[in-house]
Amino acid sequence: MGRPATLGSAVTALLLAVTTASLGCSRREPPALAAPSARTPASSVSAAPAASAPKPGPTPATTSVLDPKTAGIKDLTLGDLFDVGPMAPVTATSEGVVMLTRDDRLLLAPRAAGSRPDKTSVAPLDADAAEFSVLRRAPSIAGGRAYWISRGRLVRRALDGGAPLEVLDNEARDNTRVSAVELKRGVAVAFLGRADAEGTSHARLWLEGKPVLELTQEGAGASSVALTRSGNRLLAVTIDGRSAMTPLHARAVRPEGAVATLDDDVVVWVGGPSQAWTETFVGVEPGRAWAHVPIERDMTHFGLANVELGAEPHMDCDVTFFDYANGLDLAPVGTATLCGHAYVAFARPTASAPHSPQELVLVRSGTKEAQTVASARVFAAVSLASVPGGALLAYVADGRSWARGIACK
Predict the structure, then answer these.
(1) What is the reported pTM?
(2) Contact at 8 Å (CB) between 359 and 40?
(3) Strands 63-66 and 319-324
């Protein structure tokens, strides 16, 4: 059930870039590269023909292949681009851009106060590139604290910088992503447990003041987990990445009461083969939710699978693919709710040639309404966070970490 540990050309290109920018050695940081261009191409591409998808059961999922029309999003305004520091694990928050150091410290590039996110600046961070491990998983932020995996432990630390590191669970899988959500009382954190003798991990749910829950049903595994809040419930989405197929699971969690309860685990879709960096993400708006997985569509196509979960997880979910011009093993994705709608940001190649430039695309979920917000040689990470009146977008590209505000019109 383990996933292959191969990395593709995108990761190779990234490693070549960060070799000169420092990945944990004492080399000096090179001069900052020019900012990735922020552009909005006027051209659009019509929908491609429908393509068949892997079958989760006796009835196939409905799959269509679309190209988002990147001519712009009428309800959003993009702000200026800010260079906030060296390449690092970055997370966008309402306070600014949080960076995680090698020695488990949190550094904040603060976001200035302002009524409009597109007019609000983000201050640069005075830090050395050697303080960061670029390919480390960025923390998840909820309730004024950051949550991440360190040395096989689920840990957290307050964003004020002076708080001690707290260990929440000692059975976590190293080099994996966590997903934290603020509740009415406390915080919920989904993470992967330590792998068993066969290399299989299970998704777990840490709830403040309650026993840890096993999210993965017996007989299955989990290679990535994402969590969001939907009304009074939590919605957990996991993938069980394999070399032949990748089942996508979803289940609701009811956190109220002395012990949280789990609804049925539902296989909502089955995708193609996974790679070592394949992850799942989840976005939500009132009454609807989407799971996102950058994955192979078939032997010759790769893209972002957008699985519409609706109000309740169910089989035979509609699946829409945004095709990429080429495969991308390190395929950053970020999600957030802004202007009352779910949005997803993702990096993809601009051409099919190896090592082609990439673009960062922002799409309103459930539509083809989209905008290209940046271009770069390689994107290493993307993070999108809701802020009053819009969102803050943070990403890592071309040797630096960047941020820009997005406002609702």
Answers:
(1) 0.85
(2) no
(3) parallel
Domains of the chain: 9-25+39-342+349-408 (2.130.10.10)
The lowest-confidence range among 20-24, 146-150, 333-337, 392-396 is 20-24
Q: Could you report the per-residue pLDDT of 73-112, keeping only the tens digit for each?
A: 988 999 999 999 999 999 999 999 999 999 999 999 999 9
CA 278 – CA 15 distance, rounded (Å): 18
> Please, what is the Cα angle at 395 between 293 and 102, to 5 degrees?
100
**Could you write out the three-class secondary structure of the chain?**
CCCCCCCCHHHHHHHHHHHHHCCCCCCCCCCCCCCCCCCCCCCCCCCCCCCCCCCCCCCCCCEEEECCECECCCCEEEEEEEEEEECCCEEEECCEEEEECCCCCEEEEEECCCCCHHHCCECCCCCCHHHCCCCCCCCEEECCEEEEEECCEEEEEECCCCCCCEEEECCECCCCCCEEEECCCCEEEEEEECCCCCCCCCEEEEECCCCCEECCCCCCCCCEEEEEEECCEEEEEEECCCCCCEEEEEEEEECCCCCCEECCCEEEEEECCCCCCCCCEEEEECCEEEEEEEEEEECCEEEEEEEECCCCCCCCCCEEEEEECCCCCCCCEEEEEECCEEEEEEEEECCCCCCCCEEEEEEECCCCEEEEEEEECCEEEEEEEEECCEEEEEEEECCEEEEEEEEEC
Supply the Cα-derived Rg of the chain in whole angstroms: 20
Which of 6-10, 100-104, 105-109, 194-198 bottoms out in mean pLDDT, i.e. has the lowest? 6-10
Decide if pLDDT at 18 tops 60: no
319: burial class by Cβ within 10 Å (0-12, 13-18, 19+)? buried
Give the per-residue pLDDT at 62: 53
The two tokens of residue 312 are: 């309740």
Range scoring the smallest mean pLDDT among 57-71, 203-217, 232-246, 339-353: 57-71
